[in-house]
Amino acid sequence: MFKRSNLGEFEEIVMLTIGVLGETAYGLAIKEEIETRLKRPVSMGALHTGLYRLEQKGYLKSKLGKPTNVRGGKPKRFFAVTNGGQIALKKAMESRQQLWKDIPEGVFKLFPSQL
To answer: What are the CA-CA distances from residue 48 to residues 13, 78, 80 (Å)?
Structure first.
């Protein structure tokens, strides 16, 4: 397991999407949820690479579901965010919130600095 706690943007999006989906978070559902919510295409290759990298870091855990006829007898792999993953997400959220708070008034004309 890696010691690095910072997350890339895509890793953060994947983990947050898994949180949104809860117990129904498997590859295709994660891909479709990201594409629907963010209007952003996601390749299955990039998603699987991200999922397995996050699992190696200890931020996700996965388990196989029951085989289904729809998938030719192949089971779905379901993902969940671990406690370590939740801690990493919280740190990322707090870092972003602090950056927003530290922007001086008037620097971004469209965004008031008070959150």
So the answer is: 13, 12, 14
Residue length, the chain? 115
Task: Show the domains of the chain with their CATH numbers.
Answer: 9-97 (1.10.10.10)
Residue 94's identity, in one-letter code, is E
pLDDT digits (tens, 9 = 90+) for 18-72: 999 999 999 999 999 999 999 999 999 999 999 999 999 999 999 999 888 877 7
SS3 (DSSP) at 82:
coil
Residues 6+ apart with CB under 8 A from 30: 14, 17, 18, 21, 47, 51, 79
* Helices first, then strands: H and E counts in the chain: 4, 2
Compute how many other C-beta atoms are within 10 angstroms of the C-beta atom of residue 94. 10
